[in-house]
Write a structure and sequence with these properties.
Chain D: It comes from Lutimaribacter degradans. The complex is a heterotetramer. By secondary structure, chain B is of the alpha/beta class. Chain B has 11 helices and 10 strands. Chain C is 76% helix and 0% strand. Classes of the chains: A mainly alpha, B alpha/beta, C mainly alpha, D alpha/beta.
């Protein structure tokens, strides 16, 4: 029989290139923000408030994407905002992944009472609305970068735990696991050498997805005014300000929103693309 | 004129290789024809092409399928569906997945009669009870109300047979109907199919990989290799040999427990090469 | 009696979850370093005033004592008094609950309609460009969370092409006296379709924002499940009986494909309810979520506790309902 | 040191029946193996035959201790392994190996053939895995170049050969083959069976061959155990099972097999 999948191969390349390209661009923008940003993101010029982007009538060519109500340059704020967003994405994403995936792997493979405890914990966690939980944690921990990262890790480890547990459970029923046992591999060794490699692509996809989510959570926290300081350039803060003046100065909302949208989309598509790329059957 | 006439049927994967190569075969009223081949030979595809259930990735390149003299390709999709529903029935391979798990058994037997053929509910019900009795199911009225998971595999296959004969079809296509069953159950089911077929004088196209089963139920058979009919013969003549080298090799590879020195000869490479060459030559003839 | 047993097991699990949630929320917010009482009083308040007020709210006792007292009250339906709004928490929370429920259910309905239609179309036109288009759209919708969809909708239908309201629950100009908090329901019962239209116009944008990711999940899961079912023999059998393709999908495949999708929709619906917190804020919709954010900002401990427990209760009830529906629809469980 | 590879006495094994589990407390158990006793002498090729639900695969998995029996004893080369800890079993594992029914599930899809065969070797401390892998591939008649392939790049028969190569690479004393040809076409079936027969002869293996199909094991096996509903209904030399079956069930089984012969009386 001919394998129908070979004729149905998905276009892995394009998706990876587009999403990877945007993330790379963003990383470069964040790293070199001090060099390429045209203005100081904190500098206020009340006389240059709400300037539209350059292609609109009445614009100041100095401000490529316009200014907000306090006269701060939108482009520069987006670039500096990327620094915070990406830091949060990377640190919170990796930490969440490590904690959640480890617990999920153990629960799914070892089963028994360990699984009972972890699963029950996940159930309890999922009974809290994540946004409310995050806000609550920030209120408890105080604002700041570390608090945001802790909040994201505390809320979202369950995502990894749930998915990885289910996946590890499926893999655990496969005969190659029994075969490793017949060969005399220890339980722990089997988990690392047989189960983990098969679950890794899923973990990878979840990790990039989580990075996107971390960016969103940070934006949401900034939006309700609980992120860093109110003055610091954050995408969420810009969106919050843009939301209030959307009828007068749409660009203050639109540009950070587009950036956020593309970033979140890219992170998740990057994960899916990488997952397919590492699947030996599809490759 | 045979009831079912397949003429030069060629199928292929869309923009891909051929699945069937100019297959011709016919089944008369009351005849049982075996369709034999190893996996990937395309034997199930013939049944699917007749029933109109080919996967989307497979297209008909050429050929004609005639049912009682009517060329199915000349019919509208709607009319074709109706004709198949009225005249042809399928006995599927796996009794465990062939009954809808969320529905009771009764309606699954009667739905064709009521929805497609316009019988009254009472008539269809009576007919279903009659047939369940015919396939030796005890307490048919209770079974009609049961859900599939409450019944054993052999029982479900009986129900599927009853359902297939319900509308008195002229042709039944049985696609490996006993492969999923234990041998002891297989024997009962094969006997049942054979008896029902003889009683209703139905044409039966029996798809299988098992030459043992063929020798028990078929009057004639077609052997397939890579979608090409390698041999089309009478069952007795086939087992008396010697026919085509490939089919004989297949016969030798089939274990025979009564022969203590059965040497289980795998199909020799030169036979495979020869039959591959035959297929290649055929493809060249088509300008592949 | 498999069904009864699984329901009972679920009820026990529900109680454990609720208790766990109560413990966590109670102790987490007690770590709050700021003193909520001090914030309530005018600047000139003395230490004595603070102590008296603390005693009033029971904050002078040990944390475990507080927990026992609070839990005892909760069991009797007494969730305490809100510090910032100075009203019984239960009244406040129940007053806002209908608004959030209406929003969530409307979002669910939208998601099921859109997602179901996408899944059915995708299955009917499987392995064609239509299916590919549905996959790409669904993939995008799924990758972007409700918060961003909300902002996009505000831009599109609130600013660029202002056809919907993007703020509040009802237009104040309507001047309509509601007897209950279930506005949508009430307006239909009282046959005031102008009010109903105004409510829908307010609710549609936030509901759609919540619905988009869920619709994509439903489309993806249901389509996958449908396509798997389409390969099964009973579907093939139905096709050979003469049923047209669309009828094969809806009659034979759908009832089975819905089952595995249902549990996942349940989980996802709880996520949707969680999403109302920020979406209500975004659209200034006066529901539980909006109140919750205010409560956190005001450090209103009794109110936060009440709201979180209520959310946890909603989540577990939704899961319970989903499990029971699943069991009721699955003859294997019904007749075991 | 006895000349028995396996001595099995009154072996019992049950699974919990989750469908009838009460809310609190343990689920009732369904007995799958109901007190089995038999010996496997060194060098024997034992066929284990039975229908679905007969318990034959459970027996196999208990023999190589992928499952732990409830009671009874399993002695492997004189050592009682009935309830042995995994760590105690580890040194023994080199001596009993298993070939699985479905090679798609038993070969890790993310490893190349070389890695799949070398895995058990490394665990058992074999130094030169490279040459052992190539040797194993030679033994099962696969080209050495296949070492670099992934399982999904092989045909069904080839995958099953990789499974065999993995099992023989360690040069075990005993191999359990669980329905290893039931997914294959008759032509590859014959090849795999012939290969197995050759390996048994060359390596002096003791083999237990589990199958639902009596006809494939006549040539391979010297003794046959027939199982039905968790019990052994017949345990006799192959010739006797085929020519003078004692149990009713064995007779029924034999009479049900459709021979490729239109003249067979199949009543």
């Amino acid at each position: 029989m001919h394998d129908a999948r070979s004729t149905m191969r998905r276009p892995i390349g394009l998706r990876l290139w587009l999403s990877g390209g945007w993330v790379t661009l963003l990383v470069l923008g964040a790293i070199f923000a001090p060099l390429i940003a045209p203005h100081d993101p904190l500098y206020q010029d009340l006389f240059a408030g709400r300037m539209p982007p350059v292609w609109v009538d009445g614009a100041d060519p100095n401000f490529l994407l316009g200014t907000d109500s306090l006269g701060r340059d939108v482009l520069s704020r987006i670039l500096y905002g990327a620094r915070l967003a990406l830091t949060v994405a990377l640190v919170a994403g990796v930490l969440t992944c490590l904690i959640g995936a480890t617990l999920g792997l153990i629960a799914g493979y070892y089963r028994g009472w360990v699984d009972m405890v972890i699963s029950r914990l996940v159930d309890i966690w999922m009974a809290f609305p994540p946004v409310l939980f995050a806000i609550l944690l920030i209120a408890v921990l105080g604002t700041g970068l570390t608090s945001i990262i802790i909040a994201i890790v505390v809320i979202d480890w369950t995502r990894f735990a749930r998915v990885v547990r289910a996946e590890a459970m499926t893999q655990g029923t496969m005969d190659y696991v029994a075969s490793a046992q017949v060969a005399g591999r220890t339980r722990f060794g089997t988990m690392l050498t047989e189960i983990l490699p098969n679950v890794l692509p899923t973990i990878l996809a979840l990790l990039t997805l989580e990075m996107g989510i971390a960016v969103i959570v940070e934006a949401i926290l900034s939006f309700v005014n609980l992120s860093i300081s109110t003055d610091a350039p954050t995408w969420g803060g810009m969106i919050a300000e843009g939301r209030t003046s959307v009828h007068q100065a749409w660009w203050v909302l639109v540009f950070p929103l587009i950036t956020l949208f593309l970033t979140v989309l890219s992170f998740s598509q990057l994960g899916e693309g990488l997952k397919d790329y590492f699947d030996p059957v599809l490759r | 004129m045979s009831f079912l006439d397949v003429e030069n049927l060629t199928l292929r994967i869309v923009r891909g290789p051929r699945i069937l190569r100019a297959v011709s075969l016919s089944v008369d009223q009351g005849e049982v024809r075996g369709l034999v081949g190893e996996s990937g030979a395309g034997k199930s595809m013939i049944g699917k092409a007749i029933l109109g259930t080919l996967p989307r990735a497979i297209e008909v390149v050429s050929g004609r399928i005639r049912l009682d003299g009517t060329d199915l390709q000349t019919l509208s999709a709607r009319e074709r569906r109706r004709q198949i529903g009225a005249q042809v029935a399928l006995i599927p391979q796996d009794p465990l997945t062939a009954l809808n798990p969320v529905r009771r058994v009764g309606p699954q037997i009667t739905n064709r009669l009521v929805d497609i053929l316009g019988w009254s509910k009472d008539n269809a019900q009576a007919r279903a009870l009659e047939l369940l009795d015919e396939v030796h199911i005890p307490d048919p009225a209770r079974v009609m109300r049961a859900y599939p998971h409450e019944l054993s595999g052999g029982m479900r296959q009986r129900i599927l047979i009853a359902s297939a004969f319900a509308a008195e079809p002229k042709l039944i296509i049985a696609d490996e109907p006993t492969t999923a069953l234990d041998v002891t159950v297989q024997k009962q089911i094969l006997r049942l199919i054979k008896n029902m077929q003889a009683k209703h004088n139905t044409a039966l196209l029996f798809v299988t990989h098992d030459l043992g089963v063929v020798s028990k139920i078929c009057q004639s058979l077609s052997v397939l290799y890579a979608g090409k009919v390698i041999e089309d013969t009478d069952t007795r003549r086939f087992f008396a040999g010697p026919g085509h080298a490939y089919s004989q090799a297949l016969l030798h590879a089939t274990p025979k427990y009564t022969d203590p020195d059965d040497s289980l000869t795998p199909v020799p490479q030169q036979v495979i090469d020869a039959v591959e060459a035959e297929v290649a030559e055929f493809d060249k003839g088509l300008g592949a | 009696m498999l069904l009864m047993r699984s329901i009972l097991a679920r009820l026990v699990a529900t109680c454990v979850t609720l208790f766990g949630a109560a413990v966590i929320v109670f102790f987490v917010i007690r770590v709050v370093p700021g003193n909520p009482i001090a914030m309530m009083l005018p600047p000139g308040a003395t230490e004595d005033d603070i102590a008296r007020l603390q005693a009033l709210y029971g904050l002078d006792k040990s944390i475990f004592e507080q927990f026992v007292i609070w839990l005892g009250g909760v069991v009797q339906g007494d969730f305490g008094t809100s510090i910032s709004l100075r009203q019984p928490v239960l009244d406040l929370v129940l007053g806002r609950l209908p608004a959030t429920l209406e929003l969530s259910i409307m979002a669910l309905v939208i998601a099921v309609i859109i997602g179901g239609a996408m899944a059915l179309t995708g299955t009917l036109r499987r392995e064609t460009r239509t299916e590919a288009a549905i996959d790409v759209t669904g993939g995008m919708a799924l990758s972007v969370p409700d918060f961003l969809w909300g902002l996009v909708l505000i831009l599109l239908f609130g600013v660029l092409w202002p056809v919907f309201h993007i703020s509040g629950r009802v237009s104040p100009s309507l001047d309509f006296d509601f007897a209950t908090q279930f506005y949508l329901f009430e307006s239909v019962l009282r046959l005031r379709f102008d009010v109903w239209a105004d409510l829908v116009s307010h609710m549609f944008m936030p509901a759609l924002a919540l619905a988009i990711p869920l619709a994509a999940i439903i489309a993806q899961l249901l389509k996958q499940s449908l396509k798997e079912t389409m390969h099964l023999d009973y579907v093939t059998l139905a096709r050979t009986k003469g049923y047209p393709e669309a009828s094969v999908i809806t009659r034979e495949a759908l009832p089975n494909a819905v089952l595995p999708t249902l549990t996942l929709i349940g989980v996802q619906f709880t996520f949707l309810i969680g999403g109302t917190v920020i979406i209500e804020r975004l659209f200034s919709y006066e529901g539980l979520g909006n109140m919750a954010i205010d409560a956190v900002i005001n450090r209103d401990l009794p109110l936060i506790q009440g709201i979180v427990i209520l959310f946890a209760l909603i989540f577990t009830v939704v899961n319970l309902v989903v499990d029971m529906t699943y069991a009721a629809l699955n003859p294997r469980l019904r007749h075991a | 040191m006895s000349d028995m590879i396996y001595e099995i006495r009154d072996l019992r094994l049950s699974f919990p029946d989750m469908a009838h589990k009460p809310l609190f407390g343990a689920a009732p158990r369904v007995e799958v193996l109901k007190g089995l006793s038999f010996d496997v002498p060194k060098g024997e090729v034992l066929g284990i035959v039975g229908g679905s639900g007969s318990g034959k695969s459970t027996l196999g998995r208990a023999m190589i201790r992928l499952l732990e029996p409830d009671s009874g004893t399993i002695r492997f080369e004189g050592t009682d392994i009935t309830h042995a800890e995994e760590s105690a079993l580890r040194p023994l594992r080199r001596k009993f190996q298993m070939i699985f029914q479905d090679p798609m599930s038993s070969l890790n899809p993310r490893r190349r053939v070389a890695g799949i065969i070398a895995g058990p070797l490394r665990l058992q401390g074999v130094q030169d895995t490279q040459s052992c892998v190539l040797e194993a591939l030679d033994m099962v008649g696969l080209p050495r170049s296949f070492a670099r392939r992934y399982p999904h790049e092989l045909s069904g028969g080839q995958r099953q050969r990789v499974g065999i190569a993995r099992a023989v690479a360690l040069r075990p004393d005993f191999i359990l083959a669980d329905e290893i040809v039931s997914g294959l076409d008759v032509s590859s079936q014959a090849q795999v069976l012939n290969l197995l027969e050759q390996l048994v002869k060359d390596l002096g293996l003791t083999l237990a061959f589990i199958s639902h199909d009596l006809s494939v094991i006549r040539r391979l096996c010297s003794r046959i155990i027939v199982m039905h509903r968790g019990e052994i209904v017949e345990n006799a030399p192959t010739v006797q099972v085929f020519d003078a079956p004692q149990a009713d069930y064995t007779r029924e089984l034999l009479q049900s097999i459709p021979l490729p012969d239109p003249d067979q009386v199949w009543a």
